[in-house]
Design a protein that fits this description.
- 38% of the residues are buried.
- By secondary structure, this protein is α/β, with parallel strands linked by helices.
- Mean pLDDT is 79; it is low at 4-16, 498-540 and 583-654.
- The chain has a domain at 536-614.
- It is built from 21 helices and 20 strands.
- The chain starts with a helix and ends in a 40-residue tail after the last helix.
- Strands 1, 2, 3, 4, 7, 8, 9, 10, 13, 16, 17, 18, 19 and 20 form a 14-stranded mixed sheet that branches. Strands 5-6 form a two-stranded antiparallel sheet. Strands 11-12 form a two-stranded antiparallel ribbon.
- Keywords: Apoptosis, Carboxypeptidase, Glycoprotein, Golgi apparatus, Hydrolase, Membrane, Protease, Signal, Transmembrane, Transmembrane helix.
- Its main location: Golgi.
- It catalyses: Preferential release of a C-terminal arginine or lysine residue.
């Protein structure tokens, strides 16, 4: 009864206050640069504006509006919705929309240009500024409100979702992926857990959110483990060495951090992160300064977001990437805010990050999101973590160390991880580029992105879109130099991947599904082996040839037996009808042997030949495990046996 009252109240409050979908529409011609785009099909359908949160407490003087910007393909309806959140905390998700994986970038003329690596070609994209007072998200009360804990931030975002799905109900049934980078490594698992709890309390399936997975890039998820990874990572990459004058101080800070973590009490609420661990990164930046007279002022300090780059001190990466500097000017252009359905008198001047949000979010109640991951993984949720290998701030050693400590599915860490190479194939130049490496175990995938920074979609946009392709199982699996390699490719060839044949997007199956999917698996694997042999050009071994001949003989016998059975059944039925209709003639034939002999010589059963030549029992199966059902292989990616390039793959949970 309480749940019914809860949802009814939300519905009443939201329906009373929310604008209509049409009021959020964005006209492309109002955005500078889009009129100059030659291929108009690359311009997505857009919606943007302030979404009032579905707050039940009407006495709250601080009504909150979250700013969102949605992009979807205008030429095709996609069944996946990716919600993207930037981190900070306090950094606007317009970084993602206009600097990273959105459909557009802002050029030096403050105009929008097409981003060839946009993710909107794979899924609908929804960018949200949160927590409150981040970007264009505002509080309308008498005081400026800030979230002080991730539990409050999560509740506010759930309020946003309640409002959003009322205005855009068609998105509720889509496969939902919560994604983000950096400090969003905290937001994303918290939101995923809240959605699962909400779904468990829903009265019907239609009220549930169709959460399918989470995707975190260069995530800050486990402060303790990731802080302790700074020094080992810097040493392994040659960023510093033992001859550095700051090395002894670094060892002391590393020991202090380690001792503080070890000494924590098990019965007290632990701090979100320890002060003793926060100084290590700053000391590394000090240790790598170059203050020689010939050093340009903008190259004094190492860029913590991409350690192969330099920056001025004390920015050490804050001035990067260059495109970020264009975004404030774009939003300052006359008419832009109005085009995005914003009241320019009620929103602040846009800035990338609001430090007030950062300083207020102390998390005195919340625990780090790494503690949410085991339960999310055990629930079957598909989790992808990816890292640009050049990032120092949230480096890949820290993330891998975190994974090694995780316990889920009855095992710890990557116990039996499958390892794959990863290439990006450019069909325009017919060349392959090394994109990175992939580890997969159970329903957790880790992707290392080659030569990429903290903001992978910014400097490796085409590679980053491949991360989404891996999630959606849209890639080739090839054997290159005796190594299994996943191959993602350019946009114009994606339709050849056979996405209609994809199964098990989550990479998880229950026991019943596993049993049914194994039916007819042998024949499909035979087709797969034949396809692999044709592509490689290698002759199968003698043993494989004998097995293949044996299977073909079994298949032929199966077809012959079924055909004979069908002929006998149908023949009996025709004979029965014939006898019933021509009783007198039949009696005469039975009495007169000469008539029987004559009729039997002239009779021709043509439908038997039609049946044999017109129906393929091996390929046209409608039961589970048929050629329409993708073969499964526990704990790995598996090629689907299709023709030409129509192939699809999946990640499957053991």
């Amino acid at each position: 009864m309480m749940r019914l009252w809860y949802f009814s109240t939300i519905f009443w409050v939201v329906c009373k206050a929310l604008p209509s979908r049409k009021q959020y529409s964005v006209a492309p011609e109002l955005l500078p640069g889009l009129s100059e785009v030659e291929d108009k099909s690359t311009i997505p359908e857009m919606y943007a504006g302030h979404m009032p949160l579905a707050r039940l407490n009407s006495d709250d003087e601080n009504e909150v509006d979250y700013f969102f910007w949605k992009f979807s393909r205008s030429d095709k309806v996609l069944n996946t919705l990716i919600i993207w959140l930037n981190g900070g905390p306090g950094c606007s998700s317009m970084d993602g929309a206009l600097v990273e994986n959105g459909p557009f970038r802002v050029d030096k003329n403050l105009k929008l240009v097409v981003n060839e690596g946009s993710w909107h070609s794979r899924a609908d994209l929804l960018y949200v500024d949160q927590p409150v007072n981040t970007g264009f998200s505002v509080s309308n009360g008498n005081r400026k409100a800030f979230d002080d804990d991730l539990t409050l931030t999560t509740q506010h975002f759930m309020d946003f979702l309640e409002s959003y799905f009322k205005v855009f109900p068609e998105d509720r049934s889509k496969d939902l992926i919560i994604a983000g980078e950096s400090y969003s490594g905290q937001y994303v698992p918290f939101i995923a857990e809240a959605i699962q709890k909400r779904n468990a309390q829903a009265n019907s399936a239609s009220e549930k959110y169709n959460l399918r997975g989470i995707l975190v890039g260069n995530g800050w998820m486990d402060p303790d483990t990731q802080s302790l990874a700074y020094l080992p990572f810097a040493l392994s990459k040659g960023i510093i060495d033992q001859k550095n004058p700051h090395f002894r101080k670094l060892l002391e800070e590393q020991e202090m951090c380690q001792n503080r973590i070890i000494s924590k009490s098990s019965d007290e609420h632990q701090p979100f992160q320890y002060e003793e661990c926060e100084s290590i990164l700053q000391t590394i930046l000090m240790a790598t300064k170059n203050v020689s007279a010939e050093t340009p002022s903008n190259e004094v300090c190492m860029n913590m977001y991409s350690y192969n780059l330099r920056d001025s001190f004390p920015a050490c990466g804050s001035n990067w990437p260059e495109e970020v500097l264009h975004v404030p000017g774009f939003f300052d252009r006359p008419g832009i805010l109005e085009a995005l359905n914003l009241d320019s008198t009620k929103v602040p001047k846009w800035k990338e990050c609001n430090l007030d949000v950062y300083f207020h979010l102390k998390n005195r109640k919340a625990v780090p999101s790494v503690r949410k991951l085991p339960a999310l993984l055990d629930s079957g949720l598909k989790v992808i973590l990816y890292n640009g290998e050049m990032d120092l701030l949230c480096n890949e050693k820290g993330v891998l160390d975190m994974i090694d400590k995780l316990q889920w599915g009855g095992q710890r860490g990557f116990s039996n991880a499958k390892k794959y190479g990863w290439n990006y194939r450019d069909y325009d130049t017919n060349t392959d580029h090394i994109a990175g490496n992939v580890l997969f175990d159970r329903n957790l995938t880790y992707i290392s992105v080659h030569n990429a920074s903290h903001m992978v979609p910014n400097d490796k946009s085409l590679y980053s879109r491949g991360v989404v392709d891996i999630y959606l199982n849209d890639f080739f699996l090839e054997k290159l130099e005796s190594k299994d390699v996943l191959v993602t490719t350019s946009e114009k060839n994606m339709d050849d991947f056979g996405s209609s044949n994809k199964l098990g997007v989550l990479g998880t199956l229950d026991d019943d599904d596993k049993e049914s999917d194994n039916v007819g698996m042998t024949d499909q694997k035979d087709d797969k082996n034949k396809t692999d042999q044709d592509k490689s050009g290698e002759r199968p071994s003698k043993e494989e040839e004998e097995q293949d001949q044996r299977r073909r003989r079994q298949g032929t016998f199966k077809i012959f037996g079924i055909t004979v059975l069908v002929v006998l059944v149908l023949g009996s039925f025709v004979l029965y009808i014939y006898i019933r209709k021509h009783t007198n003639k039949t009696r005469a034939i039975l009495i007169n042997p000469s008539h029987r002999q004559h009729d039997s010589q002239n009779k021709k059963v043509s439908w038997a030949d039609d049946l044999e030549h017109g129906y393929d029992f091996e390929t046209d199966q409608s039961q589970p495990g048929s050629a329409q059902s993708a073969p499964k292989k526990n704990g790995s990616y598996t090629r689907v046996p299709n023709t030409e390039l129509d192939e699809s793959f999946e990640l499957e949970n053991l």
